[in-house]
């Protein structure tokens, strides 16, 4: 009879698969439940800063992802109305040397495929699709999970359950009755555009570029080996339905970009369809662990607006940190979970503050925008790089071992 897994994981997205791989690296078996019958990642591009890629490299995922990823030359901040470049943070080889790992951009589906390929090669990982972990309760010195497969309900027991089931986590309530989400008032408009259909700077740049404007900001970077351009624009708006992604007319986006540079407006017009994501954030102040046997990671724990481009990176950091702690406290999971929350929450709070700062800067208007432009024009590239040392130079595993 096959030995039962040490850990149950709810969700086979970026957080869940990284968690399974990190556990396997430390000798733990896991069973990953995914509600979708076929694994497929929705969304568009994502940024993988060095604090994430150093972990992916240790897990063997980076080698699988590299052929489809792009290493951008820089992060640029530009004014959307004129395309004037206000600031540049060098990436590429310079960033890799400074922070010890590459800064990459990729399509979410490519990262998902790389994680899945590595997980399927790992004998310690069992993947169950078409199965939703609906609830859990403490049972003795472990946890008992209720799992639904179509019309069938079954149960599974293990010493530990990790909820990696995203912003709409069904397991948050098992940790805290006060856990939940709030709509932030922002919409993310996501699309990929073939490079040959992009106009102006979007057709030629190899950077991660944020185009700033009081009514919106647009982030663009190459994906899929450089063949496509990932576009994500952020505007204020209403969440019409409690769904993660929905189809909408692009009229609100075009209205927000009415006085943007013509090349930006032309590229937006060339997009055949936008996927609109109402941006929700998890309630702060609620616990990430329950009874020493249940832990939330990634968006299930701390979904936040993506203005720091750290959503995937924080999920990857969570997985690495929690696996390291479980290995250190192999016989006392409650001690590991308590340390996980104590160590990770301050890090997440700082990242969230950085995102709030970015939103303020990128959407500045009037005299505040004039002051912003003056400050950014005067800052040296080396000083701008130093601003990110705490974020990109961070090693989630070394933080535990140190």
TrEMBL record:
UniProt-recorded Gene Ontology molecular function terms: FAD binding; monooxygenase activity
Domain FAD-binding stretches: 6-354
Protein's name in the database: Salicylate hydroxylase
Cofactor(s) the protein needs: FAD
The entry's keywords: FAD, Flavoprotein, Monooxygenase, Oxidoreductase
UniProt xrefs under Pfam families: FAD_binding_3 (PF01494)
Residue intervals passing through the bilayer: none
């Amino acid at each position: 009879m096959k030995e039962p897994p040490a850990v149950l994981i709810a969700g086979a997205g970026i957080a869940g698969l990284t968690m399974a791989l990190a556990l396997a690296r430390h000798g733990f078996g896991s069973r990953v439940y995914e509600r979708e019958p076929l694994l497929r990642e929705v969304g568009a591009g994502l940024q993988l800063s060095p604090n994430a890629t150093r972990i992916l490299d240790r897990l063997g995922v980076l080698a699988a992802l590299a052929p489809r990823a792009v290493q951008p030359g820089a992060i640029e901040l530009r004014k959307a109305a004129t395309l004037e470049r206000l600031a540049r943070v060098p990436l590429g080889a310079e960033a890799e040397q400074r922070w010890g790992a590459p800064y990459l951009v990729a399509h979410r589906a490519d990262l998902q495929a790389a994680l899945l390929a590595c997980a399927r090669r790992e004998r310690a990982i069992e993947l169950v699709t078409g199965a939703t972990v609906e609830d859990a309760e403490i049972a003795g010195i472990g946890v008992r999970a209720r799992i639904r497969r179509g019309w069938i309900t079954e149960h599974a027991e293990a010493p530990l359950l990790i909820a990696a089931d995203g912003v709409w986590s069904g397991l948050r309530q098992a940790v805290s009755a006060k856990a939940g989400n709030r709509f932030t008032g922002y919409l993310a408009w996501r699309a990929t555009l073939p490079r040959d259909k992009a106009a102006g700077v979007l057709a030629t740049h190899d950077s991660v570029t944020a185009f700033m404007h009081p009514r919106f900001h647009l982030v663009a970077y190459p994906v899929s080996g450089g063949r496509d351009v990932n576009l994500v624009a952020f505007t204020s708006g209403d969440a019409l339905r409690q769904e993660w992604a929905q189809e909408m007319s692009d009229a609100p986006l075009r209205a927000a970009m009415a006085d943007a540079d013509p090349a930006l407006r032309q590229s937006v017009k060339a997009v055949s369809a936008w996927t609109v994501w109402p941006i929700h954030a998890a309630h702060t102040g609620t616990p990430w662990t329950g009874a020493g046997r249940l832990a939330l990671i990634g968006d299930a724990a701390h979904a936040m607006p993506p203005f720091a481009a750290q959503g995937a990176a924080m999920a990857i950091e969570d997985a690495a940190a929690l696996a390291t702690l479980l290995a250190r406290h192999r016989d006392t999971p409650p001690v590991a979970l308590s340390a996980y929350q104590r160590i990770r929450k301050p890090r997440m709070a700082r990242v969230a503050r950085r995102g709030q700062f970015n939103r303020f800067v990128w959407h500045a208007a009037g005299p505040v925008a004039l002051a912003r432009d003056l400050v950014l024009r005067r800052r040296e590239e080396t000083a701008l790089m130093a601003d990110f040392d705490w974020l990109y130079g961070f090693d989630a595993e070394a933080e535990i071992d140190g």
